[in-house]
Amino acid sequence: VGGITQGANPTGIVVRGNQIREISTAGGSDGAGIRVENANEVKLEGNTIEGTEGYGLMVGLGANGAPSRDVTVEGNVIRAEKLVRLGRQRPGLRMDANRYRQGGLFKAEPQETRDFSQWKALSGVDQRSEVER
Asked: 52-90: per-residue pLDDT in tens?
């Protein structure tokens, strides 16, 4: 959603109830399941993301230095080796009630962890989210 754009950033986008599987890095793709860049008031709700070669979810990496504002990520399931990557350009991010594959990688720029408790502390999000057992 968004990306490097001309004109106004996309606003008010809802991505809900999708099954996203086996996204590849072939052809130069980042292999992400869902990526939000340079967008405002985006809601990612009730999606299942599995088997991506890149991160299952990427938000706020700041393409062209522009932030992703007021993004909501709730009720999603992410099962991949690389789970979530959060950049620094994500003011107003709300992220909670998600479920993650055990042992997957989280990144809150610039730090990475596979420890879910550490992820919550580093990122400041996902306080009510869970790791699948």
From this structure: 999 999 999 987 778 999 999 999 999 999 999 999 999
